Amino acid sequence: MLRKIAFNLFAWSIVLMVAFPLFWMLVTSVKPQFELFRRPPTILPETWTFEHYWKLLSDTNFLGYFWNSVILSTTTTIVVVAIATVGAYSLVRFRYKGRESLAFLVLFTYLLPSVVLILPLYLMLVQLGLSNTITSLVIAYTTFALPYALWLLRSFMAGIPEDLESAALVDGASRLGAFWDIILPQLLPGIISTALFTFILSWNEYLYALVLVNSDDARPLTTGVMNMLISSFNIEWSLLMAASVMMSVPLIIVFAFLQSYLTRGFGAGGVKG
């Protein structure tokens, strides 16, 4: 009994430690500016206000950055999932020389620090005339999201019995038809998990967006909010907290509905196919 109580207290302590910064971010976003630096600080605001949200939406380019992030993350997710699905099918179902070595080489590229690829990618994108565009970020994000997505879907693909596809081929289905009608429905949990992982990664990425995009029209939320609200002389804390809350809402909503797929995906990613 004492052990159970101690474990529950420990677990709730961890939860509170993780949740408190999120709670403080939310509370700060609805505090008037003059209450932010009051000593001692108050947990809850004495006066609740939503003026920071209104100012963020009406007086800044937040919605433009938000739309850029939606386009960027959605496009990257579609590209990565499409390529990873076909690639995983190739690595699992076809037999050719160097197949296993190729799979481990793909995973090895994911282990490389992101900063290693920035300069080559930047030079390549400049030569292609794609610098300072959302397309350049889609290409960049695909380079580091695709290896893990491919390995993740490979693990899911390896768990689908090959006999199901063989039976469909014997019954007269084409390879493409068997893939569409048999493999994809079985692979759907892995596809959703991979898509969620890729979307979150693209939504939160900062380093590539900072280096590859200098145009305000193509900035995503991560660098757009930083450039808009943080300067060498001043930080708009209230607006920054309001922006952080609004940036978190799409991820919270998506994660709330698909968290079981994400957990299942992380577990499958640790299994060698």
From TrEMBL:
Keywords: Cell membrane, Membrane, Sugar transport, Transmembrane, Transmembrane helix, Transport. Its main location: membrane. It is a multi-pass membrane protein. It holds the Pfam family BPD_transp_1. GO terms for cellular component: plasma membrane. Residues 66-258 form the ABC transmembrane type-1 domain. InterPro entries: BP-dep_ABC_trans_perm, MetI-like. It comes from the Bacteria. PROSITE patterns: ABC_TM1 (PS50928). It is found in: Cell membrane. The chain crosses the membrane at residues 7-27, 65-92, 104-125, 137-157, 178-203, 237-258. One of its GO terms (biological process) is transmembrane transport. Part of the ABC transporter complex MalEFGK involved in maltose/maltodextrin import. Probably responsible for the translocation of the substrate across the membrane. Belongs to the binding-protein-dependent transport system permease family. This is Maltose/maltodextrin transport system permease protein MalG.
